[in-house]
Specification:
Number of helices: 74
Radius of gyration: 58 Å
Structural class: mainly alpha
Largest sheet: 4 strands, antiparallel
Shape: elongated
Helix content: 55-70%
Distance between the termini: 21 Å
Number of strands: 12
Strand order of the largest sheet: 1-2-3-4
Length: 1425
């Protein structure tokens, strides 16, 4: 801003320009300005009288400046101001005296010049003389001295004015005015001083002073005017004057004027010689051609021609010879001229005269010259006149005369042998060109010229574009050049036509690559629909899907997959569902899960969030048996989540879930140990005694499985199920306990069966008396007799008869059969197949036989019948057929168990049935298969196998028992009950048993495969698996969710380890040239932000973050080639997408690091490292924002300079490369916020950094890095922090672009030769301390290590008015520079510069808004000034 004031009563002007006070003492010399630095705003200009010590008063002028705390006064030069006042009042003598008191300065010199001009205008000659003497203009001062002397000679004193009351200035003015008016010679001299020579002449002539007028012209060297005046006035000394004039002209080497005098006098030959002496042969030639008599003088002619040729006036020499009829010489000279006039004259002469040369030859030579000088259109016409069609064709193309080129080509094509002649000419020219070293013009045959014609129309931007392309296509087709047609349509953006032509050429691979490039360009511009269209044109479905993956447009992915029948849509839906789940979009996640049929994942998702109603709703919508079972599990978790059991019971009753929840509690579905306590509480609160009995029963079964038989017995009794306790003790061989239960709780019929079974057992053990008592007690005399007969104890049978237990008839029959050798049971009734066939159905017979637990034969027969029952034997009158079949299969399972247990493993080898032998293993396999096929309870099959195992182990049949453990394991795994299978193994074997190891390994493998098939990541993680799966799918979030869930359940902390594994895995997939690099980096930061921090003060964390940071900084910044090769053409709009990606990566990196630092888990060197990595990432994010707009280029430059302080963490060659090209870009920009002095400094720094980069790379290429380079100066302050990252070889260099490297080398060389740049200072980083003044590493180096750094540029802030302290991050104290914040906040509000488009401005606003949000929310930067 600028404001101006005028000093009262003077011409002095005062103005303020920002921090400077500007004073103009002479308004006529605006370039003469006095400037004073000030620290406030100018308020007023005051003039006042002050009294000096001598008592004399004088006027003082001062400028009042408001400096906030005080008002400062700046005094102006009183003499200079007084000078202006004196001049205004006409007091020139006083003005001169004021100037004499001042020192010699540019301001006083301007005042002397002003005074001199006024003095001359007012004819005050002495004052003017004094002024010019002071200014050093000796010539004018001397001339004025002659005027003063002449005035004194003429009696100056007699013109003195004596009138009283006049001041000295007025008297001087009147005196000199009078003498000038009366003395014409003085007046004439004043006119001469003013260069008014003709006015001076008229003044003298008016007073008959001819000689004085002539002397005046002679005095100033104007002899022609003096002679003219003498001739006009018939001066008697005219001849003398002419002689004097010629001598003067000769002495001053003005022969041309002498020649003119000779010419005027008619002495033409002398005039010619004088013209030649004067170096004017053209005028001499003109004189000769005017005089025919002179043309005959051959000597003179040759002399003139010689001089003309020396001056290369060949045309004039040729014209002279042509005038003399010497045509051969004239032609030669015309051809030597090498210009249009000469060649035109030569062609004309050849046509008019016989000169021995064909005019066409001269025309071709003329056209060759025109071609060389770039006048192609005229050259073409001359070639056509000389019938040189090929050369004319070339010139037509060079001159862009395409219509004429088409006509010429048509003429060649239509002429006989024209094409062949053109091809032969091209071949011959090419051969000659090869012999001469390959230099020369391009040699084309007919086809080549046709292609060139097509290329012209292909690139023509004016006129009808479609018509031009059709014309180009016509020529390309004529030349049979499909590749040019393709390139044309590529350049025009008509990718479809280009693709069709590529296919027509048979270049399928190139066609695919072309489509990929076009689609990628569209995607970069966010024209995804166009990109998809391009991909699908070439059947490139996978790249199209990958594109939509990068932008998370899963709807489009699914649309494409379904449209083209891709089977991978399930995986895609699953990935999208997991993403939506992490984002908290539960309804969308549910929709996606259900679409792929993973209702279990949906239920688990809602349960993890405590959304029990939603989870139950999903199960009800599924409606399968498994879903119904899951509904019970949901009810259980819901009940556990409620604070009151009473409320839980009411809720479950309202939902009709109480029965299912109780089953869940008792069957260990929710946890490894059944929750019987909750089950009893729920039953009691719901007032359901029937359910309470059910809980007692289930608890008893559980205790039985655990071997706690007495506790189990109590539960069975409480459940009113004594039979269960009875069977339990029978199975375990505890017959006394079984008898006790029977006596106390069983009916007469039940007691009979129990006593029979126990008696048989005791009999087998040899306790005949006890067995006899029990069998008699059960009224089973027949069995007792059979048993005695088997062991040949007829005495016992007789004893029974004696005691009245056998009738005489039975005893008689028994004796008769023994005599005949019949060993069958004489007391048995018709209970065999015959009896069944006579009147009993198969099922009724099987039930009857199975009820006789004391008769093994009946049990085996019942088993056989149960195994042979099919659906044809059943009707649905007794319920569903499948349920009946399942019931009878379970009856068969019980019989197998009873038979095996009763016989102590006796029938293991072969369980003989009446229709043939059948191994026990076969029977078990059969019943287990039926149980599976009929969807029976898997627990019953497992229980059968384990009971068989226990029975076999009691009789030491170990290998046979192992077989049934394996059966149990397989059966449990078949029903996906892997936890139960594991329990079975642990129940049967010690953990280190070989069989146990094999079975456990098999169970785990089957569980893993099952989890993979259904996508159960929780299950995989629980088994220590899942990471290999997630490496293939890339769904690390789902894996980490599962690990986190497992940690909560088991109270472990495996998430940090899993997170580090995931980070390393993704880092391995990130490559510098990888097309998926950005998506991998995005996913990497997402999982760290979602599941971090690592919060582990170990070297492992150090290595993880250093590797991650290395991946981020192993490539140059965006637009590096553009900025390196042609910075003046750099436009942020072309690279905003790249800068946005760069910002996104480093923004997430700084957020990750800040989260780690704020966790408080780090200290020492690792905290220092993380803090430094945060600062560097923060700077890169800030710079990416600034590089998106030229308005923020000053900030980007400061950040690039500051990054050179961090060459331990970032490769030094990357830092030097980026700092160099960005400094150069800023130096060449027209950014108004960068003054010229700053740009000059930045250009020096650019030279420094790029030169250092070149040294670094060249040393790396040689394999040695000496970082004591003279260009780096003293880097001890940086070296103390650690090893500087420099490339050890060529492969480690960040810059791999050789052409860019060469461009930078050329620029460094050119800059070093630029004499306009002062490299005598500031050329060492250690000396670049123009801002800090410390000798440290240039302006970005802190004076003190404790100085806070600006959180935008990392420049040190050591003056409080500049910055505001905000917070510390790790080992760094941060502040903010208000001017930098203001620039950034302006961009945040208005976007880019005025020339940016609306879309670009919105992009800049979005980036700056996001960045400013981070500064304010995370670093505490105030949002308002």
């Amino acid at each position: 801003t600028q404001s101006t004031w005028g000093v009262p009563q003077s011409d002095v002007v005062v103005a303020q320009n920002r921090d400077f006070l500007c004073v103009w003492y002479n308004i006529d010399s605006p370039d003469k300005i006095s400037m004073f630095p000030i620290k406030g705003e100018v308020r007023d200009v005051v003039r006042e009288l002050v009294q000096e010590q001598s008592g004399k008063e004088r006027v003082q002028t001062k400028v009042c400046v408001d400096e906030k705390l005080d008002v400062a006064e700046y005094l102006l030069d009183s003499d200079l101001i007084a000078f202006g006042s004196a001049v205004d009042s006409g007091q020139l003598i006083a003005a001169m005296s004021y100037l004499e008191n001042l020192d010699a300065t540019p301001e006083t010199a301007a005042h002397w010049r002003t005074l001199a001009t006024l003095s001359l205008e007012q004819c005050r000659i002495p004052i003017a003389q004094r002024c010019y003497a002071e200014l050093g203009d000796v010539a004018k001062a001397r001339f004025l001295k002659t005027i003063v002397d002449l005035a004194e000679e003429k009696g100056l004193d007699q013109y003195e004015v004596t009138e009283p009351g006049l001041d000295i200035d007025t008297r001087m003015a009147l005196q000199w005015k009078a003498i000038v008016d009366h003395e014409p010679e003085i007046k004439a001299r004043i006119h001469m001083l003013r260069k008014e020579f003709y006015m001076a002449q008229n003044t003298l002539l008016e007073h008959d002073m001819l000689d004085k007028a002539i002397e005046m012209f002679i005095l100033i060297g104007k002899w022609p005017q003096a002679l003219q005046l003498a001739e006009e006035r018939n001066h008697p000394g005219l001849d003398k004057l002419r002689t004097q004039c010629k001598e003067y002209l000769k002495s001053t080497n003005q022969q041309d004027k002498i020649a003119a005098m000779h010419e005027a006098e008619g002495e033409y030959q002398n005039a010619i010689y004088e013209y030649l002496k004067a170096g004017m042969p053209s005028k001499a030639a003109n004189q000769m051609m005017k005089r025919q008599e002179l043309m005959s003088n051959e000597s003179l002619l040759d002399t003139v021609v010689k001089d003309l040729c020396e001056f290369e006036f060949f045309n004039k020499a040729g014209e002279l010879y042509e005038k003399a009829n010497n045509y051969q010489r004239a032609l030669k000279l015309y051809r030597l001229s090498k210009d249009k006039e000469g060649y035109s004259s030569a062609v004309r002469l050849a046509r008019e005269q016989d000169v021995g040369v064909d005019a066409r030859e001269l025309l071709e030579e003329y056209a060759d010259w025109l071609n060389e000088t770039g006048e192609y259109e005229m050259a073409m016409e001359k070639y056509l006149q000389s019938q040189q069609l090929i050369k004319a064709l070339k010139c037509a193309f060079k001159g862009n005369a395409i219509t004429r080129a088409e006509d010429i080509l048509e003429t060649i094509r239509d002429s006989p042998g024209g094409k062949e002649s053109l091809d032969r000419s091209a071949e011959a020219a090419a051969a000659n060109q090869a012999k001469s070293g390959g230099k020369g013009e391009e040699q084309l045959g007919y086809t080549g010229w046709v292609i060139k014609l097509g290329q012209y129309y292909a690139h023509l931007k004016t006129g009808n574009r479609q018509r031009n392309m059709k014309k180009a296509q016509k020529y390309f087709l004529e030349a049979n050049s499909l590749e040019h047609i393709i390139q044309m349509y590529k350049d025009a953006g008509d990718w479809e036509t280009a693709y069709d032509y590529l296919l027509q050429m048979g270049a399928e691979r190139e066609a695919q690559g072309f489509l990929m490039d076009e689609a990628y360009a569209c995607a970069a511009e966010k024209r995804y629909t166009d990109a998809e269209k391009i991909y699908l044109k070439g059947n490139l479905l996978d790249p199209a899907i990958e594109m939509y993956k990068r932008i998370d447009d899963f709807d489009s992915i699914l649309r494409l997959q379904r449209k083209f029948g891709v089977d991978d849509d399930k995986a895609m839906l699953l990935e999208l569902a997991e993403r939506r789940k992490r984002e908290g979009d539960w309804s969308e996640a549910e929709r996606l899960y259900m679409e792929v049929g993973m209702w279990k994942e949906t239920v688990n998702m809602y349960m993890q969030q405590g959304k029990w109603e939603e989870a139950r709703r999903v199960c009800q919508e599924v409606g399968t048996d498994e879903a119904k079972n899951k509904e019970g599990f949901i009810g259980y978790c819901w009940a556990k989540d409620l604070p009151s059991t009473v409320n839980a019971a009411k809720l479950l009753q309202n939902l009709n879930l109480i029965d299912q929840v109780v089953e869940v509690c008792c069957n260990a579905i929710a946890s490894e140990i059944p929750d019987f306590e909750l089950a009893f509480d729920l039953c009691q609160a719901a007032e359901r005694p029937d359910l309470t009995s059910r809980v007692h029963l289930l608890k008893g079964q559980y205790l039985e499985d655990q071997g706690q038989f007495q506790l189990a017995e109590k539960q069975f009794i409480s459940a009113a199920k004594p039979n269960e306790a009875l069977l339990m003790y029978i199975h375990e061989g505890n017959l006394e306990a079984a008898q006790r239960i029977a006596d106390a709780h069983c009916t007469v019929e039940e007691k009979t069966q129990v006593y029979t079974a126990i008696g048989r057992k005791k009999f087998d053990k040899g306790d005949y008396d006890a067995a006899e008592k029990l069998l008699l007690k059960s009224d089973n005399v027949e069995l007792l007799v059979s048993l005695y007969l088997e062991i040949s104890r007829s005495d016992k049978v007789q004893d029974l008869a004696d005691r009245g237990y056998l009738t005489p008839e039975q005893l008689h029959q028994l004796s008769s059969m023994r005599r005949h050798g019949d060993t069958s049971d004489p007391l048995a009734g018709s209970s065999g197949p015959a009896g069944m066939e006579l009147g009993f159905g198969k099922i009724q017979e099987a039930n009857r036989l199975a009820s006789n637990l004391s008769n093994p034969d009946d049990l085996r027969e019942a088993l056989r019948l149960f195994l042979t029952i099919t659906k044809h034997d059943l009707t649905d009158s007794n319920g569903p057929v499948e349920e009946q079949l399942l019931h009878y299969n379970q009856q068969a399972m019980k019989l197998v168990e009873v038979l095996c247990i009763q016989n102590g493993g006796k029938f293991v080898e072969s369980l003989s049935l009446r229709d043939g032998p059948m191994k026990l293993s076969q029977v078990v396999s059969t019943v287990l298969s039926r149980q599976t096929n009929l969807n029976g309870d898997w627990k019953k099959g497992v229980s059968l196998c384990l009971n068989l195992y226990n029975a076999l182990m009691k009789v030491n049949l170990i290998s046979e028992g192992d077989e049934y453990v394996e059966y149990a394991v397989k059966f449990a795994c078949l029903h996906s009950q892997f936890a139960a299978a594991t329990k079975i193994v642990h129940h049967a074997y010690e953990e280190d048993h070989e069989v146990a190891k094999q079975l456990l390994a098999s169970i785990k493998q089957q569980a893993i495969e099952a989890s993979r098939q259904v996508g159960d990541m929780d299950g995989l993680v629980a088994m220590g698996e899942g990471f290999d799966d997630v490496r293939q799918t890339g769904d690390y979030g789902r894996y980490l969710d599962a690990v986190h869930k497992k940690d909560r359940e088991n109270r472990t902390n495996n998430l940090p380890i899993a997170l580090r594994k995931s980070i390393r895995s993704l880092l391995e997939q990130v490559g510098a040239g990888d097309s998926k690099r950005n998506s991998h980096m995005q996913k990497l930061f997402e999982i760290i932000l979602d599941y971090g921090p690592l919060a582990d003060n170990t070297s492992d964390v150090r290595n993880v973050y250093k590797a991650l940071f290395e991946k981020l900084t192993n490539t140059p910044c965006p637009a590096i080639r553009q900025m390196g090769t042609s910075p003046e053409e750099y436009k942020p709009v072309q690279f905003r997408n790249e800068w946005t990606v760069e910002y996104s990566h480093f923004d997430k990196m700084r957020k990750v690091l800040l989260k780690e630092i704020d966790s408080g888990a780090y200290s020492g060197d690792l905290l220092t490292l993380l803090s430094t990595l945060f600062i560097v990432s923060h700077l890169y994010a800030n710079r990416a924002v600034c590089m998106a707009s030229l308005k923020l280029l000053p900030l980007a430059t400061k950040i690039s300079l500051a990054l050179t302080m961090f060459i331990h963490e970032v490769p030094a060659d990357k830092v030097f490369l980026e700092a160099g090209v960005i400094c150069r870009l800023a130096a060449l920009s027209n950014n108004e916020d960068l003054p010229e002095s700053r740009k000059s400094y930045l250009k020096k720094m650019a030279f420094l950094f790029i030169n250092t980069l070149i040294d670094t790379i060249e040393q790396a290429q040689e394999g040695e890095i000496d970082f004591s380079s003279e260009y780096l100066g003293d880097l001890e302050s940086i070296r103390e922090r650690g090893e500087i990252l420099v490339p050890k070889d060529q492969q480690q260099c960040v810059l791999q672009d050789e052409s860019l490297f060469e461009e930078l080398k050329d620029w460094v060389l050119a800059t070093s030769m630029d004499n306009s740049i002062d490299f005598s200072s500031d050329m060492n980083i250690a000396n670049n301390a123009s801002s800090s003044g410390t000798g440290q590493v240039f302006e970005a180096c802190p004076r003190d290590p404790n100085d806070p750094l600006c959180c935008i540029t990392a420049y040190p802030i050591n003056k409080q008015p500049i910055g505001i302290e905000i917070r510390s991050v790790g080992t760094y104290n941060l502040s903010i520079n208000n001017s930098d914040r203001g620039l950034l906040q302006t961009a945040k509000m208005v976007g880019g510069m005025s020339g940016d488009s609306l879309e670009d401005r919105e992009t800049i606003k979005k980036l700056t808004n996001d960045n400013f949000d981070f500064l304010s929310k995370n670093l505490g930067v105030p949002t308002q000034f």
